Amino acid sequence: xxxxxxxxxxxxxxxxxxxxxxxxxxxxxxxxxxxxxxxxxxxxxxxxxxxxxxxxxxxxxxxxxxxxxxxxxxxxxxxxxxxxxxxxxxxxxxxxxxxxxxxxxxxxxxxxxxxxxxxxxxxxxxxxxxxxxxxxxxxxxxxxxxxxxxxxxxxxxxxxxxxxxxxxxxxxxxxxxxxxxxxxxxxxxxxxxxxxxxxxxxxxxxxxxxxxxxxxxxxxxxxxxxxxxxxxxxxxxxxxxxxxxxxxxxxxxxxxxxxxxxxxxxxxxxxxxxxxxxxxxxxxxxxxxxxxxxxxxxxxxxxxxxxxxxxxxxxxxxxxxxxxxxxxxxxxxxxxxxxxxxxxxxxxxxxxxxxxxxxxxxxxxxxxxxxxxxx
Length: 375
Fold this sequence. Notes:
The protein has helices at residues 3-10, 47-55, 86-93, 98-116, 180-196, 211-220, 232-246, 288-307, 315-333, 351-373, and strands at residues 13-20, 25-30, 36-42, 64-70, 73-79, 83-85, 122-123, 132-135, 140-142, 149-150. The chain is of the alpha+beta class.
């Protein structure tokens, strides 16, 4: 792109304010549409990486809008994401529970695994808390691919040493060429920091905070790249296997984007008591207020259904129909005894299909209840 064309393209964007002056990151507004974006000015970059990211958008990465190159300088226009970084969450929350750290790691691996599976692999090379951003809905986004490279076969060491001290693998200091294992190393440091509250991990992870996760973190941080997990996909499988042994299966979770029912946690990030999973909806947790309200609902449901009076038709038919609709609906919507894993549509991996299934099964309950009421 010539200077005139680049200048013309850049003229469509109005600089609003600097976000990171040291790294030449600015908040800009597209003059014609009024939309807000982030503009990065890069002097060290690999154009092939950004061309691939532009052509293959993913919700786990900021969406690239435009690439403007001018005299060995690349201007990257990308989506502006409002949210908190992992660094900000660590400062506010300190140590994370094993469940919360596991979920974040599963999301990170889900984003990085497709990049590591490319031929050649695309390596981020600067995974750190500042580059993990949580959208307002809680989903994870990996940002800042400025240091990213396509792994080159046969290279003995990196031509440019990039990375952040403490998170960069030993080979990023010139001992060897960067491969997918450098991202695995950084992921291990991140996991250790979430479990212990410190990057060095001087506070050892207790059983309550996930000793089983500490072992995975330790393997990720092996000095020898050959002894680490070879890429994010292998790390993800190790996390999933360990999670299936140490965490309860309770239904669909936002950690993965597709697949069968998987591990999930309550809002506090603590795992539910597996002995309570088959209890009536409302009594599975440990919240007394919810249990009292649930108890009142079941009393009203049963008493109301058995004492209902009708002006026409069978009294007991009407009562049975009302009990079927209210009781059956409660058990259906409350996923009693993991009912959703047995019913067509409700066991589908796609959330929209499950919603449609829930509506259709509720309509079927209405039809059956109506039939009983008209006996």
